[in-house]
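Supplementary Methods, section 5.1.

A reviewer requested that the exact input to the structure prediction be made available. We therefore reproduce it here, unchanged from the version used in the analyses.
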Amino acid sequence: DHDHDHDHDHDHNHSHSHTHNQRLIFIAFLMIASYMLVEVVGGYVTGSLALLSDAGHMFSDAVSLAMTLFAFVMGKKAANSSKTFGYRRLEILIALINGVTLLMISAVIIYEAILRLQQPPQIATTGMLVISTIGLVVNLIVAKLLHGGDTDNLNMKSAYLHVLSDLLGSVAAIVAALAIMLFGWVWTDALVSVLVALLIFRSGCGVVKHASHILM
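The structure derived from this sequence is encoded token-by-token as follows.
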């Protein structure tokens, strides 16, 4: 009977940490998705490709957080369902589409950046600096949130790592804005965009490879 109580407590703790993780992921998703929209508008208004590419990176984060959430919700559902593999496969398909989208986003950013290096546009650096700084703060808060979750959980861990790499995107945009303000190096905006695009490309490749491997 003592063992039975112990198992019950264990199950209870497990489902509690599961719900806790799910709540954290949901809050993180809302913050990242909302801020991604701010960066899209901000990048468009200020003329900064670095902000737009960081928004692309945030988009990849938002999708991965949404997929993690989906995995948690379906994970609960799958236990009492005959479709044990059906839901998993849908999750993998979403992952594959996400991966291909990331590869396309990175290609567009690199193409844009090459055009910009030839003809650097006017960039509203103050706006760029403000938006990228707020972006950094948002990423720090989300990283702290996710770190408070169950980092042994693979989904939580990957979401956390996504946000950390996104943090680099914000730092890069801040550096670019300062370089333009202080030294007039307009090309840093395009250069930073290429670096962020390569980060996006790398995570896209990883996702496509992983998803294809499972589907095969």
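Helices lie at 2-46, 49-78, 86-118, 125-147, 154-183, 187-215. These observations are discussed further in the main text.
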